[in-house]
Amino acid sequence: MTPPKQVALSLFWRTFFLLALLLSCGVFAWVQTLRALEFEPRAVQSAQQIASLVVLTRSALRASDAINRVSLIKGISNTDSVKLRPREPADKWEPYEVDRFTRVIAQELRAQLGPDTVVASSMNRAPGLWVGFSIDGDPYWLQSDPTRVGPMSWSTISLWGSIALLATVIGSAMVASLINKPLKELSFAASRIREGEFDSRLDENTMTSEIRQVNMGFNRMARELAKVEQDRAVMLAGISHDLRTPLARLRLEAEMSVHDEEAKSNMALDIDQLDAIIDKFLDYARPGETKLMPVHLSSVVDREMAAFRDTSQIRITSRVAIDTKVMADDIELGRVLQNLFENARRYGRSVDTGIARVLVSYSRAGPWVILSVRDYGAGVDPKKLAQLTTPFFRGDAARTAATGAGLGLAIVDKALQRMGGSLELVNAPEGGFMAHVRLKKAP
Length: 443
Known about the structure:
Blueprint: H1 11-62, H2 66-77, E1 82-86, E2 93-95, H3 100-113, E3 118-123, E4 126-135, E5 138-144, H4 154-194, H5 209-257, H6 261-284, E6 293-296, H7 297-305, E7 314-318, E8 325-328, H8 330-347, E9 356-365, E10 368-375, H9 408-418, E11 422-427, E12 433-440
Parallel strand pairs: 7-9
Antiparallel strand pairs: 1-5, 2-3, 3-4, 4-5, 6-8, 9-10, 10-12, 11-12
Helix pairs in contact: 1-3, 1-4, 5-6, 7-8, 8-9
């Protein structure tokens, strides 16, 4: 059973989510604290306002005679926010205390107006905040606007909470971007170094001391790598010149001094082999400069096939469509095919005929084109497949004997990496050895 793939979050999103979660918890705690702190004062303030209104009404009624009191009651009842009416024995009312907030208001009203004060949420099915009190033995109802009494509404809390959360998300994104900017720059510079561009430089004047030290160390490393690359190029040029000069003299000496034709031929073969090994070393150590462009795959295959014309050693068949195009470097891709064909010629010969039969085919897989180069030889020990791209390793114990530098497949793997592709080496199910070259399809 294949284990499920884990989704890897980038450092930016991880930092963003952690900051957003932390700040969101802070906003929630702040809202809860604000509600708790303003709960008691708001309830007491609401009760004091209603108690003041009852006291003023009671004082006005006491200061008027019986005739003016009726007119005063009618005048107060005509207002929108306050209504005053006599309290009848048949009145039916419901208690106001239903939660913590209303209980605090009722207790505060009784504390200021007297223990016999009645606080109701409705009277004769008329909703509102009704306060029952008495004046000289006459009971009355005072109705206050209920919208003026109550805790902070959820709409207000939701509005301010939404604003706070939006500010939290924007702030988290900005902070995460600032935190990850130096790492993003370092990652980009490291990718350029990996591609052989050693002129990458990071800011050494940043305000953060730790990042400044990292940038200075990276720039120092880039300078050292550039110097090593320059020295390597000079060394390779010197090696190529210094080794090929005595080889040319040996070839000339063999042609002029050796009379035995067989010995002369063997010496020429040895010199050619040494020259080919030098080419392999230079190819493997070649700087990684590639220019990717749309390339007709079939034309490159046909061109490299033409270099292997000796049908007594290798016979290559291509089944690549002429309209297949990939993103590659034409020279690098040619070098890849040349090494794969040479590897098949050396190691993929069949035991019965001694000829290496090679089949080149292709397939498409999404944005990729997979070029397959197969021979019909003895194959490779499965335990050694993973080591075939290791420099100087040759897995020819199970294949026909041949000589070489052991760099061919290492050169192929390195060249494909420079072109953004990959190499997969497998044994064919029906026998033989297969190399799958994966390259991006050209638009």
